[in-house]
Amino acid sequence: MTIKQALISVSDKTGVLEFAQGLAAQGVKLLSTGGTAKMLRDAGLAVTEIGDYTGFPEMLDGRVKTLHPKVHGGILARRDLPEHMATIEQHGIPTIDLVCVNLYPFAATIAKAGVTLEDAIENIDIGGPAMVRSSAKNYAGVAIVTDPADYAPLLAEMKANGGALQLATRFGLAKKAFTHTARYDSMIANWLTGLDEGAEAKPADAAPVPAIFPAKLQLAFDRTEILRYGENSHQSAAFYRETNPVAGSIAAYTQLQGKELSYNNIADSDAAWECVKSFDAPACVIVKHANPCGVAIDGTLLGAYEKSFKTDSTSAFGGIIAFNGEVGIEVVEAMNARKHFVEVLIAPSFTAEAKAALASKANLRVLVVPISRVLNTLEFKRVGGGLLVQTPDNFTAQASGLKIVTKVQPTAQQIEDLLFAERVAKFVKSNAIVFCGNGMTLGVGAGQMSRVDSTKIASIKAQHAGLDLNGSVVASDAFFPFRDGVDVLAAAGAKAVIQPGGSMRDEEVIAAADEHGLAMVFTGARHFRH
């Protein structure tokens, strides 16, 4: 299908002048609207403004421009139906073969601080989506262009084909166009349905308050890759990224080398990355099957790695390692010296020497992720027939907020270790018990149905690693329902405990701590992780 006439009306004008010039150079007549028409005309292009084309001026402050039979008739007429072609000829309607449209910046508008409902409403595009949908519906005869990234390839295809675009190209553009309008409408629907009650009755210059959970939730994701397999090799899987992922999330990764990622690789990498980026000091997190098996902070990343590996060297084999700073050659050499097999290695950056050393490990997946403390606005978990949605767990205990409930007062060093342990426990599957000391994990008990079992497992893990728990501290992700867990950790040598509190048997648990000479502090917030 040869392109003879194009309509260009864009909000995002990136690259559109060059695109219009390329079309004009191939003999395409140009129609345009408002600011786009002015820009093209000022650049010396011959362009017909849409008001002159239809015989009706733009009106109602620009709300009505392209909503006209001469526009939509020229787009929607089926070129393969003689009666359609006869009808538009009878009414003097030429065909429009290419439509280049992108929409009012609704996302940018609602992202502004203090945006009013009136501002948001005025940035809801009407004519644009109508043209996009009309063109996409009639892809057999019209090319619809919504993405500036397509400008250059389309011009090249036209030049190679005497001004024509292939059917497969037009169909691909139509799919992209329907996605474009669907996401635009979803964004509007999410924002409007998420406003507080009575937003429509507030003064026009008042900023409405968004609700946390919209009554109707529309989600949009882009597939970035087909994964090697799912949780198991007989399952297929893919990775989808949000259209605007949070800065510093695992979705922002760049893979430097290694095999393709699997479903479990990405899930475990997310667990490791979310944990490691929560620390200010140089930190290393080793994750195995979604649980941290070793976490440490130190003055250097090398020191943090050495300490985290000691926690559970057995589980660290085949794990995921994440660092919160630039990885240098000394870290890579330490990993090589102990022949530490790793599935995925993650950091904000790697030195040139580290990259060169890692390059020999062809299968090792190396990911670069920008560091950021920004959290997702909402978290999602798929269940049969539905979706669980919650705000993220962004509570981190501070020394000033701790409630000391025992006779023994924790020392300054114990408080520091307790806060470290509490931060680690936040990323361990429930029921979680974490023994720590000197800025490192000593034993981790995760995912047990009984909290006392998690406590026993954490103690056993430390024993197997040859780590001394005497003088250690312990974090529990939720309250101790009975004193038995306190009895176990005290027998293992722990001297201080951090937990949320809130059990009906808190007095019994505190009495047990006093009996064992433990210091215990309450945070008031639990960290269940399922």
Please characterize this protein's 3D structure.
With 530 residues, the chain is an alpha/beta fold. Helices cover 36% and strands 19% of the residues. It folds into three domains: 5-193, Methylglyoxal synthase-like domain (Rossmann fold, 3-Layer(aba) Sandwich); 253-368, 3-Layer(aba) Sandwich (Cytidine Deaminase, domain 2); 401-522, Cytidine Deaminase, domain 2. The chain contains 19 helices and 21 strands. The strands form five sheets. The chain has a six-stranded mixed sheet with strand order 8-13-12-11-9-10, with helices on both faces.
Which structural traits does this protein have?
530 residues; Rossmann fold; Cytidine Deaminase, domain 2; 3 domains; six-stranded mixed beta sheet
Concise summary:
By secondary structure, the protein is α/β, with parallel strands linked by helices.
